[in-house]
Amino acid sequence: MRNQLLKELTPRWILFLIESFFLVFAFWSAIYLSNRLSISLSTLWLYKYAFVVNAVIGITGMVIFHTFSGIVRFSGIRDITRVVSFALFQLVSWLIITSISASTGLFEYIRLELLLINCFLVTFLFTGFRIFVREVFQISGNFHKGKQQKRRIMIYGAADIGLATKKALEIDQDTKMQIIGFIDDSISKQGKSLDGLKIYSPELAFRKLMAHHRVDEMILAVHNLPSERKERLFEFCSSRGVKVTIIPPLQEWINGIFRINQLKELTIESLLERDEISIDNISAKRTYHEAVMLVTGAAGSIGSEICRQLLNYPVVQLVLLDQAESALHDLKLELEGMNKQVDICVEVASVRDKYRIESIFDRYRPNFVFHAAAYKHVPIMEYFPSESVLTNVKGTKIVADAALKFDVQKFIMVSTDKAVNPTNIMGACKRVAEMYIQSLSDRSSSTEFITTRFGNVLGSNGSVVPLFKKQILQGGPVTVTHPDVTRYFMTIPEACRLVLEASVMGHGGDIFVFDMGKPVKIIDLARKMIRLAGYTPGKDMEIKFTGLRPGEKMYEELFKESEKLLATHHPLIMKAKKIGINQEWLENEINELVEAALQHKQQRIRHQIKNLLPEYQEHVLEA
What mean pLDDT value characterizes the chain? Predict the structure, then answer.
């Protein structure tokens, strides 16, 4: 409100009048100085036409270079550049005019000395005025902030982003912050100053500094900070009650400028993130050029992100298939807002409906199919095994068979680490689906069937992170199944990049496994999230152990011992060696399994899964 009022009190016409005054004053001063500080009214009258011409040149230049269109208190390098350009324009214009009129003697008193002095004065007055106004607002803002309780801020990163952060904090008149200094890992920068503030070491000096200056908040202005370093920094800050915020990526800055309201609090996703998977854009663009894409489970966490990322490539049509009509509608509106060029179509359908799926394939004739539709909640599926079989096995078989029938170029299935040595129905069904997809690659010469396998996805619907967030908001306790349980984690964008990468570099029968680094203890994840919320685990927020749920493992595996891993061209992606499968036997066993599911015979389902997967460790549910 205050900034808006100031803006209304300083309209452009006032700035135009001020600059016009500077224009006249500079030219008069240049005449006075060039005449050795002595000038009479009769001498001044000789310049009457020159004043008119100078006014015309000046006003024309002010309009061309928009010198009066900026917000003076926010003046920067671009504004100074416009002023210098304007002054040079005025100088060159005068030189051209005096050269053309030399034979007439009209402007014989306009010498080069006068023009150079005028150029300097115009630059000095226009620039000095901007600096003066900016400093007045800065002093006023500091005085205003001085009356308020200020948060003491340290900026981690003494580079361009750190400097932009400092400028944004200083410009914002309403922010109640005081910047103490910068912290940087570069030894060459430590001990020096950046824009008047000292740059400190993040090691021993950093610890002393935090205690001495009573820092309230740490702003991370570094985008390539290693995740381990980020975790250590967070642990140090959170244990001392220091809030940690991060600067958004450069592409999210508004018109290339960072605004203070874009600061984001550190999230568990950013703490657990690793080196991003990058896709060969040239190969991807060539592969996806004018392709028709079909995504099943499009309204889900993974499916919707796949759709978003596909819009970055030259696809011609994107078909969204799901049963959730409301979520599909919302996703369609979102995607249409992102890309107006791609034809986005919605199909409300179940992957368990063979005739409906085949009619969709026949209508769109997709080139790529991303199969993300599945039931994924382990404990729930233990109680409803028939539903898991009908969606995760039968549904996958129906979509894959349709891909084979309608000559889809590539079929990419989204699988899970729970398919490895499964101890639950959901994981077992996904492993059976994997086996069927691999078997189809031996029968097809035109369609390539590919599987991607990864662990838990942070922030996806029903995952542990949203659960912990909800429990923390409710005041606890935060429930963890077992103190030793571990899981692999990745972010939703990472998971979807893996899927897209697999579609580009994969061939028939491949199972791609993402190198997810070290598994994370769930108890550690809970503690970090509690600290992120500003609480102390065990003191302000209780952690309660509830015991492993039906079908849950103590730890997950990404591949079986019989699956020898092979390297790919990407350092973070491995490929499981293909295992031979008797196709006729597999088809018969799956048909028996689906038949048992259609009749909802749970014991028969479990027995049939055991026939298909000898490694399956059946979990006996309590009565």
Answer: 81
